[in-house]
Structure formats: C-alpha cells, structure tokens
Amino acid sequence: MRTNVLTDERVAVLHALHAYTAERGYPPSLRDLGEAVGLSVTTVSYHVDRLASGGLVEHVPSRARTLRLTPAGAGVVA
Questions:
Q1: Is the pTM of this model over 0.85?
Q2: FRET label pair with 7: which of 23, 46, 57, 78, CA 20 to 30 Å apart?
C-alpha cells in the first residue's frame, strides 16, 4: 500500500487493532474498533476493506473476530 493511502483514521484503526489484540489475545470486532477510534462501524468497515486491499490486514468476510495485521501492517504500527 502506498503511504499516501494511509490516512490518519486508517493508521488509528491499525494501532487500535494491534493494541486490542495484544491486550486481549484475540481480534476486536468492528464495533470494538469503532469505539476505540471514535468512528461508526460503517466507517471502520470501509477503512478495513481499504486496508485489506492494500495488504495491511486480513480477515475472513462474514466471520466475526478474524481481523489481523499482516506483516506489512505490523510494520506500520511498529
């Protein structure tokens, strides 16, 4: 993913995903991410889709709590 595609909101979603997973040992729901970054579930879903298209996160569509950082996504939050 090109750097200019990483908006502040998308970086915040990546950081929230990393922090939540590290703290609890399992991935957050979209609602959990929304609460963490102050965005609606719809907006978080949009950003997650863009991050997945860019290879920064992976998830199984229609399955709860499958969101995870890829190695590239982990590099952003490191």
A1: yes
A2: 23
